[in-house]
Amino acid sequence: MTDLALRPPPEPSGLAVAVARALAGRSLVLIGMMGAGKSSVGRRLAARMGLPFVDADTEIEAAAGMSIPDIFEVHGEPYFRAGEARVIGRLLADGPRVVATGGGAFMNPGTRGLIAERGLSVWLKAELDVLLRRIRRRSDRPLMQTPDPEATLAKLIAERYPVYAEAALTVQSRDVPHDVIVDEIVATLAAHLKVAPPGTASPPGAPPAGSSPAGPGSGPQAEQGSAS
Ligand code: S3P
Q1: Can you tell me the distance from the alpha carbon of 213 to that of 228, in angstroms, rounded to the nearest whole number?
Q2: Could you tell me if the CB of 42 is within 6 A of ligand 1?
Q3: Is 104 in the pocket of ligand 1 (CB under 6 A)?
Q4: Which residue in 127, 72, 73 sits closest to 104, CA to CA?
Q5: Which tens digits make up the pLDDT trace of 24-34?
Q6: Is the confidence at residue 189, as pLDDT, over 90?
Q7: What's the CATH code, domain 12-198?
Q8: Ligand 1 pocket: which of 101, 143, 145, 161 to mutate (most atoms <8 Å of CB)?
Q9: Taking the CB of residue 90, how many other CB atoms lie within 10 A of it?
Q10: Residue range 202-211, pLDDT digits in tens
Q11: What is the pLDDT of residues 57-73, one digit of tens each?
C-alpha cells in the first residue's frame, strides 16, 4: 500500500487527455462502496487525464473543520449527509475534474440527478471479500464500527448496488495495481465517448483521432487546482 502511494503520479497520456477533452466540461465522478479504491484510483486517473482531482470526503472535513468520525459522533449521520450533498453540488459546479465521492453519496436522489446533469459517473464495483479486506485495514469509517462488519457490509451492498447500477459506466475493482484499473476506466470512457486512440484512423465523418467532439477551448484544465 505505502509503496503504491509513494509511486509518482502518472504523466498525462494521449488517450486519457483526449477523453478528458471529450467530457466537454463535465466532471468524472467515481462512485462505489467504501474500499472500492475511488480516491487512490481517482487521484491517478486525474493525473493521467491532466485534470484536477478532488476527494469529496476531504472537502466535507475541511468545510466542517472536523473529521468524518467526529461529524458522525457530534452531529449524527443526517447532518453529514446534508453536508455531503452540499459539498458535491459545489464540486460539480466547477468542472471538469475527477471527483471521488463517499460510498453513501450516490444514494441521495438529488446528488444522483446533479451527477447525471453535470458529470459522468463511473461505478467502481467490488466484491464483498475485496472490500472487507480493505476496510479492515482502517478504523475511520463510522458505518463499519459494528460487531459484525461483514454482515453490515453485505447489507449495505444489498441496499446500494441496485442504485449504484444507475451509474453511466461500471468498472470492476479488484486486487490489481491501481494503474490497471485506471487503464480500464480510460478505455471504458473512450468507448463510451467514442474517442479513438491517438494515431489510429478515424471512421469517416468522425472527428480526427484523439480529438474531441467539443472542439478547441474545452481541453483539460490541470491548472485549475492541484491534486489533493
Ligand atoms: C460512507 C463512506 C465514506 C464516508 C463516510 C460514509 C458510506 O467514504 O463518506 O464514512 O456511507 O459508505 P468512502 O467511501 O470514501 O470510504
Answers
A1: 29
A2: no
A3: yes
A4: 72
A5: 999 999 999 99
A6: yes
A7: 3.40.50.300
A8: 143
A9: 12
A10: 554 455 444 4
A11: 999 999 999 999 999 99
Pocket test for ligand 1, best of 33, 43, 57, 88 (most atoms within 8 A of CB): 57
> What gap in Å lies between CA 173 and CA 36, rounded to an integer?
6
Confidence of residue 218 (pLDDT cuts 50, 70, 90): very low
Cα(148)–Cα(137) distance, integer angstroms: 15
Does residue 213 register a pLDDT over 60? no
Q: Which amino acid is at 163?
A: V
Determine if residue 81 is labeled as part of a ligand binding site.
yes
What's the pLDDT at 201?
61
**Cβ neighbour number for residue 200 with a 10 Å cutoff:** 10
- Amino acid identity, residue 24? A
Scan for cell 484510483, then name that residue.
41
> What type of residue is 90?
R
Ligand 1 centre and the CA of 188: distance in Å?
25
Name the closest-CA residue to atom 16, ligand 1: 34
